[in-house]
Amino acid sequence: MTLRLDGKAVVVTGATSGIGWATALRLHAEGACVLVTGRDPGRGRDLVHALGDRVEFVAADLTDPEAPDVVLRACVESFGAVDGLVNNAALDHTAAFESAELADIRKVFEVNTFSVIAMMQAAVRSMGERGGSIINVTSRLAYAGVPTMAVYAASKGAIHALTLTAAVELAPRGIRVNEVAPGMTKTPLFDAWLADLPDPAGTERDVVSAIPAGRLAAPQDVAAAVAYLASDDAGYVTGTTIRVDGGYTAQ
Which of 77, 68, 61 lies closest to 9, judged by CA? Predict the structure, then answer.
């Protein structure tokens, strides 16, 4: 593993499971100091134990208006700067479009859209003229219609549009803004969803059969793309989407 991120300080939200956990491990392995956030202090302590050094955990509900500045300030206090932000925290939502409750829709957008905007604003303030990299984790669903996923897709589609505009606006300040759009990924959330279905094995076969690569993404696949965008190897890359979906949206 090369140390492409040696000396960089990166914030990862939603880091206590799945893609966020794998991303924190990958960035740390490439030399980064990592400030990780999540709502579960127990899992946060587990992650800190797994990484060992160059890591701090801040328990935070990112829908709290004060949380973004608290998190970014903690990164500066712990590591001296903010060089990167990975917006991974998200709330899943599945429902028939016509019956989706407005209260649930608002909750999804609070987590998946509004908190991401607030984290980006706080990161820009913390980066200042030093520049840095912002990576938003969106979804294949921002690019492909899937029944019952309209609300979730819309919340991620909003971040896709934001990524493009922020990339152009912030480029003169040396801040790159990109996104990684995962396909169906084998995370604890996926496993829990599958376990609640009448035919888990059959459903998984159906899901995999729709993916040209013939398998689900692993969290590490997504983490590798994030690490590239956080590194200086992507120094001339901004406003770009890396679709880590095994070819699903290329069909």
Answer: 77
* Lookup: tokens for 116: 């991401």
pLDDT at 4 over 80: yes
- Is 72 in contact with 123 (CB distance < 8 Å)? yes
Lookup: tokens for 156: 């991620």
Residue pair 178/242 in contact (Cβ under 8 Å)? The answer is yes
* pLDDT tens digits, 35-47: 999 999 999 999 9
Q: Nearest to residue 153, comparing CAs of 211, 115, 105? A: 105
Q: Which residues are catalytic?
A: 152
Show me where the domains of the chain are located.
9-182+219-242, 187-216
SS3 content of the chain, % helix, strand, coil (to 5): 50, 15, 30
What is the topology classification, in CATH, of domain 9-182+219-242? Answer: Rossmann fold (3.40.50)
Q: Residues 244, 181: contact at Cβ < 8 Å?
A: yes
